[in-house]
């Protein structure tokens, strides 16, 4: 099997990285199309690729306007341009429609984050079962390859989990996914994604898989402090996250948790805004009678996340802390990657948070293209062989390290 | 001389205290009229007075609607109801028009805060000379008594300064006015006055009189920590305030400063809001294209200051720390008052911040009524004899203490 010509949906920070990386491998991937509601943002990405000379061989690199909530329009675009693969990097609200269009058109589908309903905040599990997994049968019937959550987290961390279970442990008791951004954007305060999406993650309950049951906590209730390779001591907080659901279903592991690193300053600003009611999505009325959603005002005064990348310095560290048993002995290992904001910006004009999310999607696309991961059904990343993925990832710029009792060493 | 029948302008927290206290002395003051743009707020104050049975003898207690920026309307009201005294407790923006109306009608005038131009934030000195003092000649020509700044600060603290200079020191080197609210309203965050007015005081430069010169600092730049009588250790910050200007001109004192107490929590919330741009009076545009002034949104989400009084607990401590020389020896004394939020609420349904500002205005009104302070010209409080004022204040519920090398004792 071999699949060529890709359509990238979306024109945000992650889509930009994906477009750059696809362009660097257009000898394999063929035509590169970028579609978004706002065609000017697609054109800007093409301009960035030209500026960085990232198109490997002469070929198609084209922008399109499309409403990703409009299934017939998506199908028509896919058929018109003749792609065999759609890389969905649009907002979390469009997964269902893009997936339906791919099934209808019979092309491969890939995304990096779970579907969200704009009306629901911090939805209760089972997340994938509420949305994407309802299309499993349709994918299998039509032989459509659909790889869910192929970013870093979810994505690479799922592959780390699969690798740990298959190669390094006889049994695993816990997988703690640790996500630290030890970088600095130099602003008083900013969010790395759209503030509305960013704050939505942290205003409700957080769900984790503990003792084979869903467990609920409030945000910033449970804290973990750990000394990390390269980035040093960091504080993280128990958070809900997409991959907890699929890992809890696909791997026989009693505890799957996700921890996000936050500095004291971020938590302080967040807490003040939340307690004052300024993160509310419900409109308030001013003394002058104007009705306004406070969160939209906060978004208006914060820096545009896209403006942060040029000045971003420092590193990210994301990985899986795995605890279990090997050869009858207790064992602990941390599988991780380190990424550098400024290096990423020099290569693709994006910071490391977008880079780590986008590069794995292109590694997965290359594995679909060469047949390795072109499985003709819907899967999450942990259901696929991890070694080809981690090898490809290393070639693309994201290396994998392991830290255990014997020290730190590069695996891929 | 004897003056009767008073018109209260305004229907906010301080006006409410003034109305209660005037009612408690209507045997001396005669008819009590309350006027505001919103007549319902005046009626609510009359309801509160009835509920607390604070009208001493049967008599007139009447609400009126008036626009305090409309001089002819004010003159017509003064003449129609036949008052001889106007107590201006309206917003800081109406001093000039109310004063003009009093001069035109030939009745006594009194206020508790300096005039402000709504377009100017943290204006540079000389403050009184920019507004009220321009009417000094007109008051003298018509024999109109106009007492400026007859609240607590300005007001009582000016009388403390005059008392210190005339009775307790041969020469004074510095007067530091210290204003501490050690009370708690039980909310996550709230301002004690209209948030717009409250934050205006702290967003720009602060001006103080040091070494006989105007000195500028930024807000929260200079901190003072001191152990106070009753309320214990408190942190205060150098702030600009009305009375610094008049005291610097009327007393021969090289250093006059004002310090406001702030808790760490208030400063933290203020700093977050200010640094994010949420205290800005300049409109921003949301992603949806709506234009909105961020400060008005902050005001909309904060508790209504008027709603705080019933649950307010704790005490205020406001006074003058005076340093100088007496009988050839260095001397230091703190003249101060302690006020209790819950006691004030029990008496007049207002917290201590409104109480301390309103009661002195009524003490001054009683001294105008009996002729003691009916001077037929425009003056600031430090230009009047302090002892009758502090004696009257003590009768009305605000006692004066002094703390020096010999300990603490009640003076009035």
Automatic annotation (TrEMBL), chains A, B:
Which segments constitute the Saccharopine dehydrogenase-like C-terminal domain?
A: 151-397
| Saccharopine dehydrogenase NADP binding domain sequence ranges | 6-147
State the organism of origin.
Simiduia aestuariiviva
Q: Which InterPro entries does the protein's record reference? A: NAD(P)-bd_dom_sf, Sacchrp_dh-like_C, Sacchrp_dh_NADP-bd
Organism domain of life: Bacteria
Protein name stated in the entry: Saccharopine dehydrogenase-like NADP-dependent oxidoreductase
């Amino acid at each position: 099997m071999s699949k060529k010509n890709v359509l990238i949906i979306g024109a945000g920070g992650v889509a930009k990285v994906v477009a750059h990386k696809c362009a660097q491998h257009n000898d394999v991937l063929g035509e590169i199309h970028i579609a978004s509601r706002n065609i000017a943002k697609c054109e800007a990405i093409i301009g960035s690729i030209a500026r960085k000379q990232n198109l490997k061989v002469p070929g198609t690199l084209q922008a399109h306007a499309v409403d990703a909530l409009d299934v017939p329009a998506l199908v028509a675009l896919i058929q018109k341009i003749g792609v065999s693969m759609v890389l969905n990097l649009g907002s979390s609200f469009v997964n269902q429609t893009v997936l339906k269009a791919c099934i209808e058109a019979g092309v491969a589908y890939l995304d990096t984050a779970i579907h969200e309903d704009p009306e629901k905040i911090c939805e209760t599990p089972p997340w994938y079962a509420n949305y994407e997994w309802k299309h499993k049968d349709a994918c299998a019937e039509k032989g459509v390859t659909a790889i869910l959550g192929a970013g870093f987290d979810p994505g690479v961390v799922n592959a780390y989990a699969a690798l740990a279970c298959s190669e390094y442990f006889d049994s695993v008791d816990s997988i703690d996914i640790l996500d630290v951004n030890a970088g600095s954007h130099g602003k008083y305060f900013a969010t790395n994604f759209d503030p509305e999406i960013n704050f939505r993650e942290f205003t409700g309950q957080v769900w984790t898989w503990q003792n084979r049951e869903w467990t609920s906590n409030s945000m910033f209730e449970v804290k973990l402090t750990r000394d990390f390779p390269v980035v040093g001591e960091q504080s993280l907080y128990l958070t809900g996250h997409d991959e907890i659901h699929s890992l809890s279903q696909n791997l026989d592991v009693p505890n799957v948790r996700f921890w996000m690193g936050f500095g004291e300053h971020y938590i302080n600003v967040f807490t003040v805004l939340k307690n004052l009611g300024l993160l509310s999505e419900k409109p308030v009325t001013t003394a002058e009678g104007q009705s306004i959603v406070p969160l939209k005002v906060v978004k208006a005064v914060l820096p545009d996340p896209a403006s942060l990348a040029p000045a971003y310095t420092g590193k990210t560290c994301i990985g899986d802390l795995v605890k279990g048993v090997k050869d009858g002995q207790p064992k602990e290992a941390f599988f991780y990657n380190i990424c550098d904001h400024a290096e990423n910006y020099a290569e693709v004009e994006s910071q490391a948070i977008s880079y780590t999310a986008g590069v794995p999607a292109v590694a997965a696309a290359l594995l679909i293209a060469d047949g390795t991961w072109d499985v003709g059904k819907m899967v999450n990343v942990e259901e696929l062989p991890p070694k080809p993925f981690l090898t490809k990832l290393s070639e693309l710029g994201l290396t994998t390290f392991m830290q255990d009792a014997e020290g730190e060493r590069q695996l891929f």
